[in-house]
Amino acid sequence: MRLPQARLDQVLDRFREIEARMGAATDGAEIVRLAKEHAELKPVAEAVEAVARARAERPELEEMAASGEAEMSELARDELEQLEARLPELEHKVALLLAPKDKDENASAILEVRAGTGGDEAALFAGDLFRMYQRYASGRGWRVEVDSISEGDAGGFKEIIASISGDGVFGRLKFESGVHRVQRVPETEAQGRIHTSAATVAVLPEPEDVDIEIKDADIRIDTYRSSGAGGQHVNKTDSAVRITHLPTGIVVTSSEKSQHQNRARAMKELQVRLYDQQREALDSARAESRKSQVGSGDRSERIRTYNFPQGRVTDHRINLTLYNLAKVIEGEALDDVIDPLIAEDQAARLAALEDELG
Hints:
Layout: H1 5-24, H2 28-65, H3 70-98, E1 108-115, H4 119-139, E2 143-151, E3 157-165, H5 169-173, E4 178-184, E5 195-206, E6 219-224, E7 240-245, E8 250-254, H6 259-287, E9 302-307, E10 312-315, E11 320-322, H7 325-329, H8 335-357
Parallel strand pairs: 4-9
Antiparallel strand pairs: 1-3, 1-5, 2-3, 4-5, 6-7, 7-8, 9-10, 10-11
Helix pairs in contact: 1-2, 2-3
């Protein structure tokens, strides 16, 4: 993609303006805001400067290559050839940085996994999916905290909700939202027949500065006794918290030992859910004018099938089929699925930038 010089100059002008204002700012809030924008613009400005340097070298090398001196001319032609190969890569990098992006790309996230159709087998599959994400998160140095859990009768989970903290969590896991289908012989199946079950996954961004106003009149807070393992482990006080957001009907719960902690965590989760509701509304509006919905499709859509007899994983959104199911379900090779989804999303964003540039 050939980026107009005017667009590149615009980026550098803004970056230099931010640097100048940072040096003169005295208000704390303004300094924080400028520092954040500076950090976001710095890699873009550096990439733009690299393109500018490469473009500036070209006429000099062309002039040297056309000179009469054989040795200098040959060296210049070699350097020019290398430059011509390098410049498109530099411009592509800038284009990706300039393309419209998800502002929650680097946010932490709330992960929800729920058993769908398939009874006990669906709950077992939900457990397999959660462990896949747990191991994947561990491999990337992310922190996983379980917020609430409902275990299946035969194992696995009817529902499990967890917070995953770290850099870039939402940017990589947002593609996991949707219906995941499994085809395998359940342990409870005496006849050896293959069953099809499903579980749903939702990934909600947890940005640091969620600006969602929640009025006291719009929520109902209930406390109740959380269940325990029996005996001395049973919680004998009403410490668990359930918050209902009356206008939307959203219900969030937290059932740790401290009622104060539970209330704070439940309010935080409510903010995230309301924020996600706003995101979904925007995504739906954008979807009207674009064909690709890799990163923000309908969560009721079947996105992936895990076929155990064939060791096959298929992502239906991009027609990707892999035969390394064992490593994917262990979280070890989940990037083999996520990376192509990110590449598809980047291609869509570049197309949007081309439309913007005309």
